[in-house]
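Go through this pair.

…
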Amino acid sequence: MAPSIVIDSVTKQFTLRHARSIKEMSVRALRRQSLSDRFKALDDVSITIEQGETVALMGLNGSGKSTLLKMISGVMAPDAGSVLVRGRIAGLIDVGAGLHPELTGRENVYLNGAILGMSRAEIERKFDLIVDFSGVERFLDDQVKFYSSGMFMRLAFSIAAHTEPDVFLIDEVLAVGDPPFRKKCLDRIRELRGEGRTMVIVAHDIKMLVGLCDRGVTMRDGRVLFDGPTAEAGRLVREARAAKQVAQSASTPL
């Protein structure tokens, strides 16, 4: 059986601009300082994910995990290397991603469903399920710009989770919303996993990831540090967090 996701030697660079105003640019020019720097968010990353695997991407902030998820989703293109994904992709890489603020919740179900590859007939067949799962029935005909971040996430997650995707991507969205809905999301993720969907999840909750994922990939400075059992991947992240806290404490003046 062919893999669901093949990430081959992917590199992605970004430009950091140090000067935002004419004054700052002039000062840096006089001091012969660079106006910008390039840094590698991803540096020669290669990962193969088999069909039906549930993979956790772990690492400290800035390690490259969210950038890699955007590469898989197609939101970003690599500077070098390639990303191949088989089948329909759905999920959330930003809270409320795909929701149009000027449209109502009802209109967004149809719009976002279509963006994620659902036909109108499929959306209509699943409409009540999507709305019931999201819990935003009372606000369905309000513009989503008036929704709270939790309501945004509930509706966006519900639409994505009912598209029957081949590949489901999640980036930190489970950190938003109330505990009962987070549990509901986790139950739905487990259902998708049981159906053989391929999933890639980014989250800071290591305990949740260990209980949910078959495999953990730990990233550091844009590179893959470890790829294997989720518990071991989580241990490396905990150690990195502890080391960072010690370094920050040592540098803080008394």
Notes: Strands lie at 5-17, 36-49, 54-58, 80-85, 89-92, 167-171, 198-202, 215-220, 223-228.
